[in-house]
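Worked example 3 (structure in, sequence out).
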């Protein structure tokens, strides 16, 4: 049986970042992943255009993941509008005393950068392709079995294995699921006149539509609607798709053309109120999978990861009950607040009641009229919620 300090199941965005940080802290780490280590084959490393906020950029920089090869598009300006309502909320990073709110990074490219970093760190052993099939935990250690029959033992097991987490199920950790009845359609389009550092988000009665800057003259589109409407949009020809996009966006940022490959994601909330058990912790989507309405999922998961590196990376016994309780103590409020915020927005904009939609719309626009409130909201959206982990801290860069 092979022995480690920490075993991580799931080598997606959350698990790869955690493995890097714990190995950098000197821990002996096992990383178990079901898919081959080619960026193209992993579900986590796909065509999604991720808004990575400023705190997450600090974390990725400090983990050595943001290297020269990785293309990132800085985000300095955000425009938020609502279909059928006049005016819009405009946020500029300079007015909030920062160079950028964050950056847009294609998940596939971030995944490739993570794989490069994982190859460079020492103290890490990958088990891939392998799947977790059994877990046993006692007061001293946790032992797992993989589908090849290989057995691994460690002081801490971390489930970074996504929404349908096997670790969560085998450990008997309770979670709740709510299906939004919506899906996200993602693809990119050419938009030659787009400003390079601006993101647009438009709320409509059936769901939000976002345009995110990508390298060259392309924009990443995240189009959320009822699942049946997204199914129908998947089979439109390119001309019809562009026509729908122009109608839906209300204000065309500069003429769209040449839509790329389309992918669809059904949307549901998975909430795990206590994401840990004896010698086991859950991070990323395995703990909380949130609606992409405000681009928080990966950012939230990365804050879980950074806090776990702070607590477990420096502990003699990283799976001790006190270590996991202290970690969750730091994360509990942020997890609850982020889930509450994204869920409220997602339900309000998909609610058939226009009263609910109106209330949320006014709430959003009120931030523009109250600079102090807006500043607080912006700082939280940039990922700086107390307590801030050492990897996310502004001085750490
Ligand atoms: C349309 C859309 C847009 C989004 N945009 C943003 C955004 O702009 N900003 C943002 O912060 N977030 C965004 N998100 C959320 C973000 O994509 C996720 O939060 C993030 O990808 C989750 O990563 P993860 O590593 O936790 O989980 P996953 O990506 O699901 O990775 C889990 C990994 O575990 C592996 N695995 C699963 N089971 C096993 C097993 N039994 N044994 C071994 N390995 C296993 C899988 O193969 C996979 O590699 C978006 C999501 C969607 C759907």
């Amino acid at each position: 049986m092979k022995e480690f300090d920490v075993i991580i199941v799931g080598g997606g965005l959350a698990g790869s970042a955690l493995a890097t940080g714990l190995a950098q802290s000197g821990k002996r780490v096992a990383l178990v992943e079901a898919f081959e280590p080619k960026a193209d084959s992993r579900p986590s490393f796909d065509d999604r255009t991720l808004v990575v906020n400023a705190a997450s950029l600090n974390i990725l920089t400090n983990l050595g993941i943001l290297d020269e090869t990785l293309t990132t598009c800085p985000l300095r300006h955000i425009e938020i509008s609502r279909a059928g309502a006049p005016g819009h909320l405009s946020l500029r990073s300079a007015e909030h005393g920062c160079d950028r709110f964050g950056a847009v990074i294609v998940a596939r490219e971030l995944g490739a950068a993570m794989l490069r970093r994982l190859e460079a760190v020492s103290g890490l052993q990958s088990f891939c392709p392998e799947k977790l099939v059994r877990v046993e935990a006692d007061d001293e250690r946790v032992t797992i079995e993989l589908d090849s029959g290989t057995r691994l033992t460690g002081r801490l097991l971390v489930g970074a294995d996504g929404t349908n987490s096997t670790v969560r199920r085998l450990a008997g950790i309770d979670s709740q699921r709510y299906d939004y009845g919506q899906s996200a359609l993602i693809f990119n389009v050419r938009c030659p006149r787009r400003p390079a550092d601006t993101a647009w988000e438009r709320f409509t009665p059936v769901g939000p539509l976002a345009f995110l800057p990508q390298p060259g003259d392309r924009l990443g589109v995240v189009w959320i609607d009822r699942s049946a409407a997204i199914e129908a949009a998947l089979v439109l020809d390119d001309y019809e798709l562009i026509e729908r996009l122009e109608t839906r966006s209300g204000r065309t940022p500069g003429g769209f053309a040449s839509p790329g490959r389309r992918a669809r994601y059904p949307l549901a909330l998975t909430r795990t109120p206590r994401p840990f058990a004896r010698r086991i912790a859950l991070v990323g989507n395995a703990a909380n999978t949130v609606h992409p309405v405000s681009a928080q999922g990966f950012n939230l998961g990365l804050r879980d990861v950074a806090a776990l590196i702070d607590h477990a990376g420096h502990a003699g016994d990283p799976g001790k009950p006190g270590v996991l309780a202290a970690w969750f103590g730091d994360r509990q409020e942020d997890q609850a607040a982020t889930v509450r915020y994204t869920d409220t927005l997602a339900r309000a904009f998909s609610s058939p009641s226009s009263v609910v939609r109106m209330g949320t719309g006014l709430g959003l626009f009120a931030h523009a009229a109250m600079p102090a409130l807006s500043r607080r909201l912006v700082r939280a959206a940039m990922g700086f919620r107390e307590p801030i982990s050492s990897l996310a801290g502004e001085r750490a860069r």
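Notes: Residues 178-267 form a domain with the D-Amino Acid Oxidase; Chain A, domain 2 fold (CATH 3.30.9.10). The chain has a mean pLDDT of 90.
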